[in-house]
């Protein structure tokens, strides 16, 4: 492990917390940070008893996107840089976003400040996103750098807030405040800064009590709805109910309802 790790992983009561710790630089997406973050995700995935994950960061910025300072310092401004970045995205960046979207357990992203560039995609990759009131989302790719949004922002934002708003955010070089992000439905909620850690923990605790397959089913259900017509989606729902109603979680839920208690779902 690095003497100055950029990512810290902790686990308490079956809830894992991954914290980005390069606070002085507002957690840019450097190669070392990506490597450590991927390693942390792999560790969480390997822990079968982990029931929820919180992703957050230290300092006044959640993540400011690409490590442009390092690129400028190295003088890496010639054409081959594009191939180098594309290789980095294939090896580290894209697997990070996919890894978060495909985690076995539900993911809470607690956004404590700026989520800019690729940091916006990282922030939105969770199942439930909570933003501090001082947080904001910013896409400088096209207006500042002449490149397209990445880290999944071009896939997630239109689905969450529509094409018109996403296009404007990509072109107008304006920040989207946490409060407006919540109003638009980009994030679950906006909370006062000092409430963010406790609120993220509260949500993660609630998610940890879900049936173990719940997050997978929810993701698959809504992904299917984006390509299905109504008849196909109704058929999808029918097929999933056919299987799930004969499973142990439904039996526990019905039993809990009859006994007027909260259901207790096993981790596996």
In words, what does this structure look like?
The protein has 268 residues and is of the alpha/beta class. It has 2 domains: 7-208, 2-enoyl-CoA Hydratase, Chain A, domain 1, CATH 3.90.226.10; 214-259, no CATH class. Helix content is 50%, strand content 16%. The protein contains 12 helices and 10 strands. A 6-stranded mixed β-sheet has the order 1-2-3-5-7-10, sandwiched between helices. A 4-stranded mixed β-sheet has the order 4-6-8-9.
| Amino- and carboxy-terminal Cα gap | 31 Å
Here the CATH topology of the largest domain equals 2-enoyl-CoA Hydratase, Chain A, domain 1
Architecture of the largest domain, CATH level 2? Alpha-Beta Complex
Number of strands: 10
How many distinct helices? 12
DSSP strand content: 15-25%
Can you give the helix content as a percent range?
Answer: 40-55%
The SSE order reads EEHEEHHEEHEEHHHEHEHHHH
Rg result: 20 Å
Characterize the biggest β-sheet. Answer: 6 strands, mixed
Our count of domains comes out at 2
CATH class of the largest domain: Alpha Beta
Oligomer: single chain
Mean pLDDT: 94
> What coarse outline follows from CA principal-axis ratios?
globular
Residue stretches low in confidence (pLDDT < 50, at least 5 long) are none
- Order of strands, main sheet, comes to 1-2-3-5-7-10
Give me a quick take on this structure.
With 268 residues, the protein is of the alpha/beta class. It has helices at 31-46, 68-74, 81-101, 118-124, 141-145, 153-161, 163-171, 178-184, 196-208, 214-225, 230-244, 248-259, and strands at 7-12, 15-20, 52-57, 61-63, 107-111, 114-116, 128-132, 136-138, 176-177, 189-191.
